[in-house]
Amino acid sequence: MPRLKETFRTVMASDLMTLAYIHTPPGTPKKEPTERLRAWEGDSPYFANRARRAPRGAPELPIRERDISFRNIPEIQEITVSTFVPLGLKNPDMLIVARAVLLAMTGTMPEMTRSKSNVVQWQLQANKPAGCKTTIYGNAAWEFMDRLVHLVFPRIKDWKGVAGSTGDGSGNVQFGLNPEDVQLFPEVECNYDMYPAKMIPGCHIAIKTTATSDRQAKLLLQSLGVPFYST
After folding, report:
1. Which of the listed residues 23, 106, 115, 219 has the most CB atoms within 10 Å of its CB?
2. Residue 9 carries which DSSP code?
């Protein structure tokens, strides 16, 4: 079991339940759940058996936040690392370097991503390679998180942290690293001479958790050592 995962389950998990504990006195009546789908207004007979409308401002229903208990303590589910190399169309070596850097960082072979449409400003052509990405699960994700928190973040100069406004509303957190930050990974730093310095790309990291809200996901990542700052 990875060191960070073992520490989380033996030390931090109980602290998360304490921080997120909501006391409900015995005999308190349960609140009726709010209506998430809107009913159709009007006297038209077509509204009788018609499906309810989606909530305002969102085409899909967001995940309902559940209270943290010993049955559903948030954990890291998977981590996706991706990089965007728009200049790889003119210089294919940049795509090779980006793929090699992601392979060294995660230990898994990245897959190439292709652009969906033509973008003149970014010199992109439809269905042409534009970057690469890879997803790691289980113990590999915990080990990657351990290196990120204890070996990379402390060495980034003048870094405020991850923006507190990040998140997709469903318990997933995303942030990016500059090329200078990617060079701090020990797998890249030990073989730094193997990569052309000006070709090492930045990357985008998406952490998917089992939390049901951004608040719980940030509470989990803060307990693991990820700093957040308010915007």
Report:
1. 106
2. I
Relative to beta strand 228-229, strand 203-209 is unpaired
Residue 46 makes CB contacts below 8 A (sequence gap 6+) with none
Rounded Cα distance between 113 and 129, Å, is: 6
Range of 28-32, 110-114, 193-197 with top mean pLDDT = 110-114
Using CA atoms in the order 133, 139, 145, 150, what is the torsion angle rounded to 10 degrees? -140
Q: Is the dihedral of CA 178, 148, 143, 13 positive or negative?
A: negative
> CA-CA distance, 144 to 141, in Å (whole number)?
5
Mutual angle of helices 138-147 and 92-106, in 10-degree steps: 100
- Dihedrals phi, psi of 149, to nearest 5 degrees: -75, -40
Q: What is the pLDDT of residues 50-80, one digit of tens each?
A: 888 877 776 677 777 788 888 888 999 999 9
Alpha carbon 18 to chain centroid distance? 25
Check residue 143 and give its pLDDT: 94
**How sure is the predictor about 231, in pLDDT bands with cuts at 50, 70 and 90?**
low
Give the CA distances from residue 190 to residues 15, 101, 137, 175, 194, in Å, rounded to whole numbers and listed in that order: 36, 12, 24, 24, 9
Q: What is the pLDDT of residues 81-136, one digit of tens each?
A: 999 887 777 788 888 899 999 999 999 999 988 887 777 777 777 778 888 999 99
Burial 92-101 (b: 16+ CB within 10 A, else e): eebbebbbbb
